[in-house]
Design goal:
heterodimer; A: MetI-like fold; two-stranded antiparallel sheet; B: alpha/beta; globular
Chain lengths: ~290, ~450
């Protein structure tokens, strides 16, 4: 018995080593680093205990980054659902060209983030962008809108992100829609239920669990999104108007060159995610029981 | 009949090809080690990279057959990050470009090698004073500038002259000019929106042009809410209404394109590189110095002369460099007259020679682009003669001793202040006070607080 246990542990060892080296160690190292005042690249460091955490508790930049993160994650998540769910419902219907459209709708999700951001920066440019050209040519705007200026940069970021990530909602929701037994709709139709009623009493209850997963995953992913935010505005003067926590953590580490403070921010975000994940598991377990 | 290749034949053929390729590299693989001299620099134009390869590198590899030179051209934002990472890893390049505002912080950590012997060999007295002592600490030289390129406004000279207005000398003149050049469908001015420029390069120029400085000379206490900065913030807030609304979200290269295509009358940050844009995108009849010219910066009410940033990284050799002697040998070849002339001609005027004897040398001036755009070269020479330039990020010459300019730039504190004042129209004093507080905190965190 003992020999079998040893063999078991030996077989597990490579996985444990990988997990330890690639997941546990970086997290522990990051936590350790957050207690130091450490230059990002030079061998200069001093132990400061919880000082960085105390600093961020009253740091205006931290709280504005947190607010931006919540607004960004909330707005993009709601709009992704608002666009993605109707698109999935449409693509679940039978019509000519449906297969082609199902492929096309995935396009924004497949292209690299840098390409998506460059594309939208071109479209929204206030000097030569197509969007402003269309707005002024049709008389909807008297002067070009400064989409990339402070007043509109968050809107532009949300538009870019929704365009890029709504296909995830489409694909996930569509996959669930295709597994709903058609008999349920047939029975509802026989009972005289309208389209809206069928959606409300058949589709929605059947897809509640997947919607729940989409909302949680997309919220977490958008809250921790770095690349889209950074590429759209990270190095520009307007960055402070869309600076989210991941961008602030990056800035502290690699532009302020304060690796210790960057690590502390990463730990704070890690704890936030941990809390969100706990909620996710708790509620998801409830859904499973219900199902 | 089609020839069919079996799996066995394919594997045999592939193995033979791989074997031949390995044997082709025989000296390296079989013991005779080829050493690699790593050279990093910031001149990313393909023709410049090719010129370095064909001149200095070709001669170096001929002279030192055991060496292979590997050059890497990187934009200076990328180079800074990569360089610091390589230093942290203990394996920096043998030779690199370095921004003058970073040199002090590396010098104080004893990471740089002195290069007095090289400077003397190149001709200490012939190197222009604008660059000679930027890396001079404790009686030794720790760097030598690769070439000089001034930055300034690039203007539509024809439009200004049509209005009968002289080049602006003061902030007030500039506001009048901007107002006169604003017309339907065209803005007077566009500044670059990158944090690096509006949060570091331009504010340093503004401070220098208005009698101010980043920090107090003795205590290093930041001076962001001092008179020089406050006057400037009020000026740039007024200047903002002559810019396109979305300028803060656009980049330096967007401003050059906007200038060349007639969407603006002045680009806020420009160098001789702009000529390339003009020659490519401006209407053909306007591709001349009569239509496009540089303008030196105006000065503020508390300053005496407008100061522009001088783009000119220095070569540096690290204490950890693997082949320092060869790096110095490479530099001797780099500055060899025929090589250096070719290098400077790869981006004419933008890469102005550091040697006084060469700036007006007929061999240098014989270049076609310099001949055509001679007035641009003359502005460069005038600026050098009248001390109108300071290295990028410097508010005064002694800033070369500040070991925290890179961190101040990276923090975005100044950029936040400028954008809030210019674009959001917030009160300069309140924003300056906020930036001052943040800058004081940053310097204290970095261990540079000398004030009580």
């Amino acid at each position: 018995m003992r020999k079998r246990a040893v063999t078991g542990w030996l077989l597990l060892a490579p996985s444990l080593a990988l997990l330890g080296g690639l997941v546990v160690f970086p997290i522990l190292y990051n936590i350790w680093l957050s207690f130091f005042d450490k230059h990002a690249f030079l061998p200069v460091q001093t132990f400061v205990g919880l000082r960085h955490y105390r600093y961020f508790a009253t740091d205006a930049e931290f709280w504005s980054s947190f607010r931006h993160g919540v607004v960004y994650a909330g707005a993009t998540m709601v709009l992704q659902l608002g666009v993605g769910v109707p698109a999935a419902l449409l693509l679940n219907e039978a019509f000519r060209g449906r297969t082609l459209l199902r492929g096309v709708v995935l396009f924004p999700y497949m292209i690299p983030t840098i390409v998506a951001v460059m594309l939208w920066k071109w479209l929204l440019n206030d000097s030569y962008g197509l969007v402003n050209y269309a707005l002024t040519a049709t008389g909807l705007a008297a002067v070009p809108v400064a989409w990339l200026g402070p007043d509109w940069i968050m809107t532009s970021l949300v538009i870019t992100s929704v365009w890029q990530f709504f296909p995830f909602v489409v694909v996930t929701y569509l996959a669930r829609l295709q597994t709903i037994p058609p008999e349920l709709y047939e029975a509802a139709t026989v009972d005289g239920a309208s389209t809206w009623r069928r959606f409300l009493h058949v589709t929605l209850p059947q897809t509640a669990a997947v919607l729940f997963v989409i909302v949680l995953l997309r919220s977490i992913w958008m809250f921790t999104k770095f690349d889209t935010v950074w590429l759209l505005a990270g190095e520009g003067g307007v960055s402070r108007y869309v600076r989210t926590l991941p961008v602030y953590a990056y800035a502290r580490s690699f532009t302020y060159l304060q690796a210790g403070m960057g690590a502390a921010l990463a730990v704070i975000m890690f704890l936030m995610l941990l809390a969100a994940t706990a909620v996710y598991f708790q509620m998801f377990r409830g859904e499973e029981t219900f199902a | 009949m089609a020839h069919v290749t079996s799996r066995r034949q394919f594997l045999r053929g592939t193995s033979a090809a791989v074997g031949a390729a390995v044997l082709g590299k025989a000296p390296a693989v079989l013991g005779q080690q080829v050493r690699e001299l790593n050279v990093w620099h910031t001149e990313v134009e393909p023709q410049t990279v090719k010129t370095i390869q064909d001149t200095s590198i070709a001669e170096f590899e001929k002279k030192f057959p055991g060496f292979k030179v590997k050059q890497q051209a990187l934009g200076w934002g990328d180079l800074n990050t990569k360089l610091l990472a390589s230093l942290a890893a203990g394996s920096p390049p043998d030779l690199t470009h370095l921004n003058p505002f970073m040199t002090a912080s590396l010098y104080v950590k004893s990471l740089l090698r002195p290069m007095d012997e090289l400077i003397r060999a190149l001709g200490e007295n012939d190197i222009h004073e604008a660059t000679l002592k930027l890396q001079y600490f404790d009686g030794k030289y720790y760097g030598v500038t690769h070439a000089m390129g001034a930055t300034y406004f690039a203007e539509r000279r024809d439009l200004r002259e049509t209005k009968g207005i002289k080049p602006p000398d003061t902030y007030a003149d500039m506001l009048k000019l901007a107002e006169a050049l604003t017309e339907s469908g065209r803005y007077a001015l566009q500044m670059p929106g990158e944090k690096l420029y509006i949060g570091f390069v331009h504010p340093a120029e503004w401070l220098a042009s208005n009698g101010g400085s980043w920090v107090d000379d003795k205590t290093w206490r930041p001076q962001l809410n001092g008179k020089a900065m406050l006057e400037t913030l009020e000026y740039v807030q007024k200047l903002n209404k002559f810019q396109p609304g979305g300028w803060s979200g656009q980049k330096y290269l967007d401003t050059l394109a906007a200038l060349a295509t007639g969407k603006i009358a002045m680009a806020g940050l420009s160098g001789a590189r702009t000529i390339g844009y003009i020659e490519k995108y401006a209407p053909e009849n306007l591709r001349t110095p009569e239509a496009f010219m540089p303008l030196l910066r105006p000065h503020g009410p508390s300053g005496k002369v407008g100061i522009s940033a001088l783009d000119g990284e220095n070569w540096a050799v690290f204490t950890q460099s693997k082949y320092p002697n060869e790096a110095f040998e490479f530099l001797r070849l780099f500055y060899k007259k025929e090589h250096y002339l070719s290098y400077c001609h790869s981006v004419p005027i933008h890469l102005t020679p550091i040697f006084k004897s060469m700036i007006n040398d007929p061999a240098y001036l014989a270049n076609e682009r310099i001949k055509k755009w001679k007035p641009w070269h003359d502005v460069m020479v005038t600026g050098l003669k009248t001390n109108r330039f300071l290295p990028i990020g410097f508010s005064r010459p002694s800033d070369n001793a500040l070991p925290f300019l890179a961190e101040l730039d990276g923090s975005g504190i100044v950029a936040d202040m400028v954008v809030e004042v210019m674009v959001s129209g917030k009160p300069p004093k309140a924003e300056a006070d906020r930036a001052q507080k943040r800058a004081e905190e940053l310097l204290a965190q970095l261990g540079h607080k000398r004030w009580s």
